[in-house]
Write a structure and sequence with these properties.
about 250 residues; mainly alpha
Length: about 250
């Protein structure tokens, strides 16, 4: 019992030191809390280990390394968080593109059916054309919830949030729910098709912009890398000169 309490306290400690959105991001990406706790523990230990290395060299060389120790450990800790944010942004963007592709596959089925085929049957056919396993599992979950809660819109909203999480995805799935409940108006499907096309084009534009930004900032990164080397050399020379003056 005591061991369990100690483990719980450690987990609370790790989570208290984590950024506010770290756990939600990693959970949304499919990681378990146990794995996230292990990542956060490893992240803290690596930062402390780096701090210990600087502390050791500061006792041998100069006390100026104490400041480097604190700044270096903090930056190392934050860099790992920024890497997670970057991966999360890329993941969310890819999920949104997958949802856009889903809408492009769904609309022809809806127009062809003209409200004469159940949405469950359409989803069943569509699931076979989805390449991503996560998308198939999510759609299967929606179909199961449709059977158990036929008059509830929440499963459709949950599917939109799992797939993309954008306002467009929620609007799209809400409209699909209304369509299968009452309207059967194909003009609604035409409007959804237009929205889906605009979102897909917008997604392609975002990809192009993202690629261009990486290309534009590449020379800047090279210059900054050179600056770090020069700065390190300057600090080393300063430390050497201070040591000579002290002598």
């Amino acid at each position: 019992m005591r061991i369990i309490k100690q483990t719980t306290k450690r987990k609370k400690f790790y989570r208290a030191l984590a950024e506010k959105d770290l756990y939600p991001m990693l959970l949304e990406m499919g990681n378990s809390k146990r794995n996230i706790d292990a990542f956060q523990k490893k992240r803290l230990l690596q930062s402390l280990f780096l701090m210990a290395i600087f502390l050791f060299f500061s006792t041998l060389l100069t006390q100026w390394l104490y400041l480097v120790m604190i700044v270096g450990a903090f930056l190392f800790y934050k860099i790992q968080y920024k890497n997670i944010r970057s991966k999360y942004t890329t993941w969310r963007f890819q999920r949104h593109l997958q949802f856009s592709q889903f809408t492009r596959l769904l609309i022809p089925y809806l127009k062809q059916s003209k409200g004469q085929v159940s949405l469950y049957s359409i989803f069943s056919k569509l699931m076979q054309r989805l390449d991503d396993e996560q998308d198939r599992s999510s759609l299967y979950r929606l179909m199961s919830e449709m059977s158990s809660r036929p008059n509830d819109i929440q499963p459709f909203i949950d599917y939109a949030n799992r797939s993309s999480g954008t306002d467009m995805s929620v609007l799209f799935m809400s409209t699909i729910f209304d369509f299968q409940q009452s309207t059967f108006d194909t003009s609604v499907i035409d409007e959804l098709g237009r929205i889906s096309s605009e979102e897909l084009i917008s997604g392609i534009d975002e990809i192009i912009t993202f690629k261009l930004k990486r290309f534009i900032f590449f020379p800047t990164k090279i210059v900054m890398s050179s600056f770090v080397i020069v700065l390190g050399f300057a600090i080393a020379m300063l430390i050497a000169n201070l040591s000579t003056i002290n002598l």
